[in-house]
Amino acid sequence: MNEYNFAYLDEQTKRMIRRAILKGLAIPGYQVPFASREMPMPYGWGTGGVQVSAAVLTPEDRFKVIDQGADDTTNAVSIRSFFERTAGVETTTATAEATVIQTRHRIPEEPLSEGQILVYQVPIPEPLRFLEPRESETRKMHELEEYGLMHVKLYEDISRHGHIATSYAYPVKVEDRYVMDPSPIPKFDNPKLGDSDAIQLFGAGREQRIYALPPHTQVVSLDFDDHPFEASKADHPCALCGAVNTYLDEVITDDAGGRMFVCSDTDYCESRRAAGFTGAMTHTRPFSMAEQGQS
Amino acid sequence: MTPLLSAKVVTKRYGAHIGCADVSFDLYPGEVLGIVGESGSGKSTLLNCLAGHLSPDGGEVVFDTRADGPRDTLLMSEPERRMLGRTDWAFVHQHARDGLRMGVSAGGNVGERLMAVGARHYGDIRGKATDWLERVEIDAARVDDRPTTFSGGMQQRLQIARNLVTGPRLVFMDEPTGGLDVSVQARLLDLLRGLVRDMGLSAIIVTHDLAVVRLLADRLMVMKDGHVVETGLTDQVLDDPQHAYSQLLVSSVLQV
User: Fold this and answer.
1) CA of A254 vs chain B CAs: smallest distance (Å)
2) What are the φ/ψ torsions at residue A294 (nearest 5 degrees)?
3) Interface predicted TM-score of the whole assembly (ipTM), two decimals
4) Catalytic residue numbers of A?
5) pLDDT exceeding 90 applies to what percent of chain A?
6) CB within 8 Å: A226 and B121
7) In chain A, what residues touch B111 (CB-CB under 8 Å)?
8) CA B118, B120, B122, B124 torsion: positive or negative?
9) pLDDT tens string A97-136
10) Which of A132, A161, B72, B105 has the fewest C-beta atoms under 10 angstroms from its C-beta?
11) Residue A112 CA, distance from chain mean position
12) How many CB atoms lie within 10 A of CB A39?
């Protein structure tokens, strides 16, 4: 496996990325430009996150990758094996055991602890992008703290849907200064961004931006006085482990309206089941497709 | 009485070419100043210099701020100037599309300035937006419609509502009636006149339409080739033009 430099990228590139990360940590929420490299995967598959992970990994680290909460989807499996091959680091699916966690679209349910690093894959780092197309202007707006436009978006939501319908990539204000796009995590996860024990790093490969939240940073979700922020989720317990306070995926089980809600964080769900918790589909008998008339 | 806005030898060059040169005037609170002249005479350049969209090469633009009294806006920091631009100043573009967010509902357009200065109560913002739509004669039921579904005259009125919602003291208007048909123009002028009088606004109106300044402006500046060639009370200038160019301008108006 030693055809590659440790963690694929060369040392100079990792230095450059680390400098950007340090600057990002020094100015929480500020988007630091960096010279993003071509990675052996298409843009949109987590090239930003992979570069940040490569820059922070050490041989002693234990690495975990989640994709929409799951450890076993294509993106998670391939990025995990990518670093197994190129860095030779240990990998795990257990949140508590991992020291570096690369994530797409979720924050693990289990609270993170000091010493852990959470790396987000970010498609579009600029929260004002779809409101103001000019990059020069959005930079000026960040510089001068002109964030009225962000509320225009929330206003439009309420006027059209009666409530703030933005349910993911919900804009936050960091330390009363920068408005930040938390990457497309569900707004259910927004409260976990603030005052976290772990370091949170955000990498956008195509857009060439890195930003960061150091531990115990104040992060406030934007809202209106009369329409306060709500961390919403599907109003069901998990069908497998019975958890009532986790973010759920809706899974269609047949073409006759059958569906189930399961924890999107597979590791959390599995460890609960291992501890004996059961849900609607597991406490009587194991769920099987055959019982529903399909083989 | 302190002038609200006082321009002193404002000059803007584009290379060797003169945009506007040595323009000085005082604008007092509640006064409406018209700037007329042919295309390319430097009217819009001057207006953009005054409103802080262009930085002039020389001169001073002193504005009587609420907090600190008269200050040269050209020496202000950019955050201060932009703050002024969304509180005490308003800018009405010739093309409503330049001044509106076409992808955002009418209510959002009017509310943007309120949210930009810190309003965070949805009900209040919406209430104010609806109120302003009615004041500019747009049906309040259209508060959630996008400006793309509005006619040209309605878009222009929406732009005016969006600008006046924070209660500015000075409005810059660049050909506010340009591109509208005459009956719509007449209603818009009527509306503007009402708003200017009710709110005690000061305004600087750039136009090439003498009828507009006859209706709205108290005083008039005639520009030619970047220079002011004649100033005076509107009726005085229009009825008894002194400068050869003013005479030409007044005599060029078609009589129906």
Assistant:
1) 39
2) -125, 140
3) 0.85
4) 29, 238, 241, 263, 269
5) 88
6) yes
7) 152, 155
8) negative
9) 999 999 999 999 999 999 999 999 999 999 999 888 899 9
10) A161
11) 13
12) 19
